[in-house]
């Protein structure tokens, strides 16, 4: 007999009592299934859920309905309903009798996109106690000031009522604006743990508790994935691709120029190195862990210092570094640094 698989359990995260719950980790471990189970159980108590994605194309009517296709609605509702359907931005329970006649419940939820948050400002969300934000971590583009937009949507949906936001993601990229603005310690969080953060949003003038769970690895899920992505998909480790390393030991090269790139909680050193024998140049990137004198800093933070700006300078060493990055002629201290660095460069618009 095949061993019964273990799956992710949402209850420890919900028991923290935090207003915002983030869970991320390996694919196919049951995070979304647990969210859907929570939605159904709340619906049976008369509570409604806002199902959220980032863009409208991610949450069209057919996709919202397919989201629940794997749920045993008949079993959970004890035969009262047999499916969940989506229609005109609303979610409903549905049952079909022996003659094929369909009957719907009152709305049990709403589905929409964060990019359209302003459309919802004048709407009344009665009895909404939960918001589920699927795939909040992406390796593509985030909305401008996305964490602020989510806060504003929360105040629209919940108004002055208690409410919970469940955010679900996979370990795709660590350069997540929610982590950097709300929970900067997350990038060092151990797998299988839950950490609590206390955040004050000045724009909305609200205080929120944020519980972040780096879901532990669950054996027996995602076993058909191989290659570079396998550790991310199968084990929940951060996704990294193999990147080039220094051909020789660092002490062998002459360091002719270096600068730092700083973005939110991430900081890197870029060294322009020369091979003294062959005369070839290369750019070496590694994490900046110590504050020391450096030629220049490029940062997303404002500064009136001459050597600290947001842009490249038109000087020969930086022109070479910029061209090397654009043409992928860069070596890294390790693969995770390369993944973080390239995501930061994209978000800062420096590529």
Q: Short summary of the structure?
A:
With 351 residues, the protein is an alpha/beta fold.
Architecture of the largest domain, according to CATH?
A: 3-Layer(aba) Sandwich
The main sheet comes to:
9 strands, mixed
Helix content: 10-25%
Please, how many domains?
Answer: 2
What form results from the Cα inertia axes?
Answer: elongated
Terminal CA distance: 53 Å
| Radius of gyration from CA coordinates | 24 Å
Question: Low-confidence spans: pLDDT under 50, at least 5 residues?
Answer: 221-236
- Mean pLDDT, as a whole number? 87
Output the CATH class name of the largest domain: Alpha Beta
- How many separate helices? 9
The total strand number stands at 15
Q: Which structural class should the secondary elements be placed in? A: alpha/beta
Strand arrangement, major sheet: 3-4-5-2-6-7-1-9-8
Please write the string of helix (H) and strand (E) elements: HEHEHHEEEEHEHEEHEEEEEHEH
Q: Return the CATH topology of the largest domain.
A: Rossmann fold
Strand content: 25-35%
